[in-house]
Amino acid sequence: MSCMSVITRFAPSPTGSLHIGGARTALFNFMFARHHGGRYLLRIEDTDKERSNMRMVDDILDGLAWLGLEGDDEPIFQHKKIERHIEVAYQLLKNDKAYYCYCSPNELQLMRENARAEGRQPRYDATWRNRKASLNSPKGGINPVIRIKAPLSGETTIIDAVRGPVTVMNKQLDDMIILRADCTPTYMHSVVVDDHDVGITHVIRGEDHLNNTFRQAIIYQAMGWELPTFAHIPLIYDSNGSKLSKRQGAVNINVYREMGYLPEALNNYLLRLGWSYGKEEIISHDRAIKLFDLSGIGRSASRFDFAKLENINSHYIRKTDNNKLTDMVLARLSAGANNLDLTDEIRLRIYLGMDGLKTRARTINELSNNARFYAASPPLSLDEKASQLLDNCALNILSGIAQTLSELSSFHESNIKHTICLFAKENRLKLGQVAQPLRAAVTGSINSPSIFEILAILGKKETLRRIDNACSINKKGY
Ligand code: GLU
């Protein structure tokens, strides 16, 4: 196969939001197509009208857009292809690869009960397979379904690109319905027709679809269509080894977005969740395109590891441009109900403080919370530790350093640092005994980037205002 011909697809059913597993499937399909210079398509599998929901379609497309995993063309909506699915079902019928089945619901029920009683798998017993519908007089009122003729003996082997050859005995496959009595195609049938019609060359999807592959293969073979290459990716488990589910943690991509994960970090993490290249953990988008291939997909289940995701997110936060981070922080601060007046001056403070802030944050939410003090106007609310720290002794030190700082003519970081160090020395204090009360007073917390940098960014007036406020509010009487 020439490299140019690769076409992959991500085919979500809009019965729920985009979750971690789906996003990873989309990413692998995207990367594989890009690696081969091929195309990556989106198909919304919305034929199940009762379970599909337009809101979910938007939600999924939005999540994919955020991750940069939009399809190369407009998404294909499966329900728009129903006529074609029906056409293929009739073609199979015409070619004697499928047949009408007039079994009533009661007969099917009986079939299932008998099978169960005899300890067999409940499967359709091919009653109508060799009966000519026209020669029998179907019982009135029964609209027939169309069933595909599954092979009766032998075995079917799929060479899966991840798992290698996988074989099932054909007698395990029954004559499944491809067109229901109400003339709607079944999911199994639609998938095959759609994949074939757009020329999908590689079907990369979750391992939970492996059984479907054998059933879908029957339709490909009956139509004389070439099978695509299948690659079934092992499922994702949580840190306890159980299947990742909504109950055990966040599975919805939008929740990660709200928690402040960057799309490039989530992509890098998802890429490594089940695929590897040596021991490389941090793999940029471009490098991933260069390296991605199906041979790097592991066979064992993947475990979702929050700590790893946080590490990767920290890395990408550090790499992100300060202007962009400042915008993200401002958007979050203004979304919070905190009455902050986000003026240009505040923006500038946060931008100037970004180098110090970004190395300490694991998420954009954390970054925003840590940057909040730049936007706050005095009196600052102090957290518990900061408030405890500001005892009378600390307040005295604060008054002293405030006096010294007020006399400074140049309020640059190096100058501030020099002054504070000198003040500590002259008063026989450790640097921390001066720096910590200062930090508590101007940031409201005892953890922050360099205090010298913060004071320089806040400027003399604002620094003195904050110290003054802290002193007057926290003065503790005996
Ligand atoms: N619509 C299926 C799902 O959301 C995927 C089908 C496929 O990839 O073939 O699980």
Automatic annotation (TrEMBL):
Swiss-Prot/TrEMBL catalytic activity: tRNA(Glu) + L-glutamate + ATP = L-glutamyl-tRNA(Glu) + AMP + diphosphate
Motif ('KMSKS' region): 243-247
Renumbered ranges of motif 'HIGH' region: 12-22
Superkingdom to which the source organism belongs: Bacteria
Enzyme kind, highest EC tier: ligase
Places the protein is found: Cytoplasm
UniProt-recorded name of the protein: Glutamate--tRNA ligase
Native species: Candidatus Endolissoclinum faulkneri L5
Lineage, highest ranks first: Bacteria, Pseudomonadati, Pseudomonadota, Alphaproteobacteria, Rhodospirillales
